[in-house]
């Protein structure tokens, strides 16, 4: 712009002669090129746009390289690893018990599941029976954590789409769950609550009445979120039919959890391969039909209701008894290996633990759901616009530390 | 949970076995649940944890190779293997033949300190915990 002499630059573009002047000026500055071809060229060339690593809609540090044709995404390359903390390497240098707090950091939004999965893998390795009360406490904590995690997702998802109110509502309810968990284990984010063979401490006396109070309070709150979003025309316009991930592609990319269920596969490890005491509770597996962003939204909304139901049943039927199986002070599981998978908030979370009979694991492999879910993003985003990419990415519920480990 | 079944497979046959496991209707292992590598110092072991949604059964396929060995990429069978193989290649130093996108994935772009997940890796601030 600065090249134009100020007094020559046409200001009134509605005047046809002025418009010709503008083209002439453009032509002059492009060293004699025909102005028409210049305009045509800028309209069709593909270009690269960098999104992130510090971008509010990527929920962490994730960089997306976009190949654009105008506003349409032609291709996309996710670049990850900014939060790589070598958690698998650290595992080979800590005792089994020392490693439990590190598992909190795999996916800090739903840390209970990481605790649970690792402890389950070690219990399988050492053949430890977990007392029934401890299993119930684990289920209650898992499901409360699932609700809290879905609330964070719902809040940030709606924030990405421009709705601020649900964000505030979600954090209001999440605060109550955090209070319940803090009451039990003293932590709000990285819980470090579960132990090999059980949990670190029993539920305090006020926990069960408070939790029951929360369950009753929470039921109508989900309707409240739905009243704001589910039938909202702007929300529908942004999500219906956007970012379709069909079942076959989802399985091919090992996408699991709510994203797979939204693609129409009725699959939930809690139901189909029950671990802990999940087989004693009555709940449903919500699925989607259209595999789009809206389906991924509604599946998670339904999951919050189901998680609430599970907590309610577990609180009613929790037995008295021990909260931790007895383990030796110097814990040495026998030689062997165990692969355990649990249904975390984001999908299947796998722990592959190999023991050489010493106090330190020989190898721990963390199979995290977000890692595989993010790999499928290019399949969903191709052909959509940047604004839709924000919605698609948010609907995947990817947590970056979970990807990078 | 069921019983864990594991097969040992020759490393040159890995792609064929994986494609057979996926495409045979009686097996139809459509989900590559997990893929990992273990360094046993004298050799490497790559483990594929497979699962079938149709039959609800699972197996682990294991294959051994030399530390700097080469292995066929199984991305033709499952696209999910793409990122897992990139991760293993960068952390353990195995080369995957015919991999569609052999870039590093987790480590910094300017990383030049070898393959950190190997058992004999020595880092600047890395202190090993004594084994008991």
Q: Helices and strands in order, then pairings?
A:
The complex is a heterodimer of chains A (405) and B (132).
Chain A: H1 16-29, H2 35-44, E1 47-51, E2 63-69, E3 72-79, H3 87-91, H4 96-104, H5 111-126, H6 132-160, H7 165-185, E4 194-195, E5 198-199, H8 207-229, H9 233-239, H10 247-252, H11 258-262, H12 269-272, H13 293-317, E6 336-344, E7 347-355, E8 361-367, H14 369-375, H15 377-381, H16 386-396, H17 400-404
Antiparallel strand pairs in A: 1-2, 2-3, 4-5, 6-7, 7-8
Helix pairs in contact in A: 4-5, 5-6, 6-7, 6-13, 6-16, 7-8, 8-13, 13-16
Chain B: E1 6-8, H1 14-23, E2 31-39, E3 44-51, E4 58-65, E5 70-72, H2 81-92, E6 95-97
The topology string of helices and strands of chain A comes to HHEEEHHHHHEEHHHHHHEEEHHHH
Q: Summarize model confidence as the mean pLDDT of chain B.
A: 85
**N- to C-terminal separation of chain A?**
47 Å
| Helix-and-strand structural type of chain A | alpha+beta
Quick one: how many beta strands of chain B?
Answer: 6
Uncertain stretches of chain B: none
For the report, how would you describe the main beta sheet of chain B?
4 strands, mixed
Task: Estimate what percentage of residues of chain B fall within beta strands.
Answer: 25-35%
Q: Which range best describes the helical content of chain A: under 10%, 10-25%, 25-40%, 40-55%, 55-70% or over 70%?
A: 40-55%
Instruction: Walk across the major sheet of chain B and give the strand order.
Output: 1-4-3-2
Class computed from helices, strands and strand pairing of chain B: alpha/beta
Tally the helices of chain A.
17
Gross morphology of chain A is: globular
Q: What's the main sheet of chain A like?
A: 3 strands, antiparallel
In whole angstroms, the N-to-C terminal distance of chain B is 31 Å
Strand content of chain A: 5-15%
The strand line-up of the biggest sheet of chain A is: 1-2-3
Oligomer: heterodimer
